């Protein structure tokens, strides 16, 4: 690779990073739907030519932000099982769970996206990506044939993402270590009965 090419590549990386940061900065102040490309380039201190050299639209820029996060999310999700042939769920430890660390390390970005009008898009992309890899990469050795495996996957992912986004929306009230520990406890908790508070209320 020539020195000129390296310089060009570095300029592209810098400009794309500046545009992403500008978009997120603006999204912290106003809805994505009201942000213009002119505002993005002015905030990033670039011109429209630079923007269109990298992206066709502000939606493509947003997609890149979300896709980068989703890729990191999948890497953190795979962490407990990517180097083993058999993933023993009942032996899963809190320290092997990396997904909360991923969200905490990107807390600023997730806080902006969670409070924005693009939250449904973020959740949909992440759900679709997690559903795909759980169905392709995790094959349960002991299957209950009465349980629809696709519904099981949907149930588990919604539960996980629901827990995570509740944590994000609470402004990361708990530490990643606490959330990791709680997730393991939830996964292993198998209640057989629950005392009700209903009896006698209609008397």
UniProtKB/TrEMBL annotation:
Residues passing through the membrane, by range: none
Matching InterPro entries: Homeodomain-like_sf (IPR009057), HTH-type_Tx_Regulator (IPR050624), HTH_TetR (IPR001647), TetR_C_Firmicutes (IPR039532)
Superkingdom of source: Bacteria
Coiled coil: none
Cross-referenced PANTHER family: ACREF/ENVCD OPERON REPRESSOR-RELATED, TETR-FAMILY TRANSCRIPTIONAL REGULATOR
Protein name stated in the entry: AcrR family transcriptional regulator
One Pfam short name: TetR_N
DNA-binding region: 36-55
Keyword match Plastid: no
PROSITE patterns named among the record's database cross-references: HTH_TETR_2 (PS50977)
Gene3D superfamilies in alphabetical order: Tetracycline Repressor, domain 2
Source organism (scientific name): Paenibacillus qinlingensis
Entry keywords, A to Z: DNA-binding
Organism phylogeny: Bacteria, Bacillati, Bacillota, Bacilli, Bacillales
């Amino acid at each position: 690779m020539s020195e000129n090419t390296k310089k060009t590549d570095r300029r592209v990386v810098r400009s794309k990073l500046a545009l992403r940061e500008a978009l997120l900065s603006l999204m912290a102040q106003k809805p994505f739907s009201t942000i213009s490309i002119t505002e993005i380039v002015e905030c990033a201190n670039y011109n429209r030519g630079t923007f269109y050299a990298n992206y066709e639209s502000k939606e493509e820029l947003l997609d890149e932000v979300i896709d980068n996060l989703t890729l990191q999310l999948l890497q953190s999700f795979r962490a407990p099982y990517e180097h083993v042939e058999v993933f023993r769920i009942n032996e899963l430890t809190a320290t092997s769970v990396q997904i909360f660390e991923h969200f905490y390390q990107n807390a600023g970005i997730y806080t902006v996206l969670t409070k924005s009008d693009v939250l449904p898009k973020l959740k949909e992309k992440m759900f679709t990506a997690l559903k795909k890899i759980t169905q392709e990469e995790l094959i349960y050795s002991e299957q209950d044939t009465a349980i629809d495996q696709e519904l099981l996957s949907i149930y588990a992912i919604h539960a996980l993402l629901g827990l995570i986004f509740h944590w994000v929306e609470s402004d990361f009230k708990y530490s990643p270590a606490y959330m990791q520990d709680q997730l393991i406890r939830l996964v292993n908790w198998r209640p057989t009965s629950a005392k009700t508070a209903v009896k006698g209320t209609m008397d």
